[in-house]
Amino acid sequence: MKVILLKDVAKVGQKGEVKELSNGYAQNFLIARGFAEVATDAKIRNAQKAVADRVAKQEETKKVLEGALEKLKDEGLIIRATANEKNHLFEALHTDTIAEHIKDVVGVEVGAASIVIDKPIKKLGEHKVHVQVGDAKVPVNLSVETK
Question: Would the pTM of this model clear 0.85, i.e. be above it?
Answer without folding.
Answer: no
